[in-house]
């Protein structure tokens, strides 16, 4: 009987993610040139990397006959689902409320989720969330001259 291994699932997930990213960037109409690769370059490179690495992980795991340890218990899978749910919520809310409003809130939620079992104060998580948001915002708007999602009322 064929038993699916953790690495095979991860490999397939990476390939699917790469295909999804590649499909999403097809709507970009900016031409690709040697002087300015355009907005497709980085996500396209990431999509290619996801597909190649995912396929490599899948095939290596398929060839490897060793037994793998348990990857995640039920609580771990629930945490993974919560993270993906939060990412989906982040994308949806950003379309309506904009980057500057949604990012610090979601960043704080992620910091709280990943800080379980450690001594990290609420104040430090708030400071981290605000600084991270401002860093990304200024990096994109000033260094790269790219617009960030704005609230729908702006």
Question: Summarize this, please?
Answer:
This protein is mainly α. It contains five helices and no strands.
How can the largest sheet be summarized? none
**Could you tell me the number of beta strands?**
0
Helix content: 55-70%
Write down the Rg.
Answer: 19 Å
Residues in β-strands, percent? under 5%
Estimate the mean pLDDT confidence: 85
Helix and strand composition category: mainly alpha
- The number of helices is 5
Q: How far apart lie the N and C ends?
A: 58 Å
Residue stretches low in confidence (pLDDT < 50, at least 5 long) are none
SSE string, helices as H and strands as E: HHHHH
Gross morphology is flat
Q: What can you tell me about this protein's structure?
A:
With 154 residues, this protein is mostly helical. It has helices at residues 6-24, 41-63, 74-97, 99-114, 122-143. The protein is built from 5 helices and no strands. The protein starts with 5 loop residues before the first helix and ends in an 11-residue tail after the last helix.
Offer a few descriptive terms.
154 residues; single chain; mainly alpha; flat; 68% helix
Write the layout of secondary structure elements.
Elements: H1 6-24, H2 41-63, H3 74-97, H4 99-114, H5 122-143
Helix pairs in contact: 1-2, 3-4, 4-5
